[in-house]
Amino acid sequence: MTAENSARSTSAATLYIDGAWRAAALGREFDMFNPADGSVLGAASDGSASEARSAVDSAAAAFAWWSRTTAYERAAYLERAHALMLERAEDLAVLMTKEQGKPLKAARNEVRYAADFLSWYAEEAKRVYGATIPSSRAGHRFMTMRQPVGVVAAITPWNYPVSMITRKVAPAIAAGCTIVLKPAEQTPLCAVAVFQVLHDAGLPAGVVNLVTTSDPAPVGDALLDSPAVRKLTFTGSTEVGMMLGAKAAHTVKRVSLELGGHAPFLVFGDADPRRAAKGLGLVKFLNTGQACICPNRVFVQRELVDDFLNVLVQRVSAMKAGNGLDQDVTIGPLIDEAAMTKMRRQVTNAVDHGAKVLTGGERLTDPRLPGGRFFAPTVLTDVTPEMDIYHEETFGPIAPVIAFDDEDGAIAMANDTAYGLAAYVYTENLSRALRVTEALRFGIVGINDINPTSAAAPFGGTGHSGLGREGGPQGIDEYLDTKLVGITL
Ligand code: NAD
């Protein structure tokens, strides 16, 4: 915290513990900045380890009775939260654009996606079924019960600051768990707005708790060290996810990790190059390239490269960067200077090793937005495995294009990564589509499709992209233990 911050009078009360909004001890706060212009947007309470422990106590006390409510009662709260979120959708979307930077249209889409988790898990709460299992012994039966795991610690990133919260909170409370959530330090105000929805939906005290902080490690440690917390659900970088997963092992917590990605986008010679280039332009530059499912390596069969690049470069150079609240803006700012430094380093390194910049490649300056961090949407060609961008998650608006000659070579390059989240295949040949999909070591594959996500469908990765699934029936399994019951008649 800066001296300027500590001297300011307390105005933020953004810790939500035991059903009440609280300021942090000693009135500690931290500021939020609009990444489009650098202006101060507001302040959040700077929570500490002791406040995280209070939040765990509150969640543990609530679990004792919340876990015994009926699925129908829990569903009713979620339905109310869903309706309220949609009522407030426009305010939430505007706040998201200001705090995180994505264009308003994309923010509106995210709010709808976020609300979907509330309604979908309201229904799924009622479908938590056990089983009866035939026994080999006469006069004996087996059955299974599925019960909530307990108090959940949730840690979320800044890039989807509303939907990453409901994707965890909705299945957790549908299952009968209680939760303590620590949002990213860049986007706590979005988290506060989501928790206000949950509060106004009437969720009882202690069921959901929020600890905003500028210093994630002590709060994270307090959550992970607590034996009362039985589950960690984390979305963020692979590096942090690995560290938190190791800490969670000390108290043998259940763990779900949604981590980084390095998605391949494969365009075969039989694909429609216009359709593929349009798809790439949309999904690569989604959220300014700051999405875990953004393609990071674009493999195009050699005979199609020129046609594909013509369309792609035309589309990408027509994109307009700026403040996401301006109507014609399609590319928002990068979240921070570290991201800007990474974009520049990856482009310089690629060019030094022989890549060509077909469009973009540099920081954009807008005299109306002197504090903004805009990087021009970029297409690189002649990219090779010697370059950093071939191996590293970019998390920004750079599309590196790599030519390939045959299917086996394309699959080998696509799988040449420790990550395994999303992959995309463009082809008009059904047999090839299925063959390649089976060979890709990724948790999600889009076949001529750039939007393989839904509250109803299991989202998640393999390898260094994580453990577990969010969305769909698999998403609630993450918050349930299976109890085996043996019965002698
Ligand atoms: P990050 O790992 O830096 O931060 C994510 C969260 O972890 C934040 O809340 C942060 O405060 C917290 N954190 C950081 N250090 C911590 C510590 N020592 N203890 C406890 N908490 C800590 O990641 P980021 O830069 O915010 O997000 C971008 C990354 O997230 C990318 O790698 C992206 O691919 C990934 N991501 C993955 C998915 C997915 O579903 N797989 C979705 C969105 C983002």
Automatic annotation (TrEMBL):
Keywords: Oxidoreductase. This is NAD-dependent succinate-semialdehyde dehydrogenase. Residues 21-485 form the Aldehyde dehydrogenase domain. Signal peptide: none annotated. It comes from Streptomyces xiangluensis. GO terms for molecular function: oxidoreductase activity. It comes from the Bacteria. Gene3D superfamilies: Aldehyde Dehydrogenase, Chain A, domain 1 (3.40.605.10), Aldehyde Dehydrogenase, Chain A, domain 2 (3.40.309.10). InterPro entries: Ald_DH/histidinol_DH, Ald_DH_C, Ald_DH_CS_CYS, Ald_DH_N, Aldehyde_DH_dom, Aldehyde_DH_Superfamily. SUPFAM superfamilies: ALDH-like. Its EC number is 1.2.1.-.
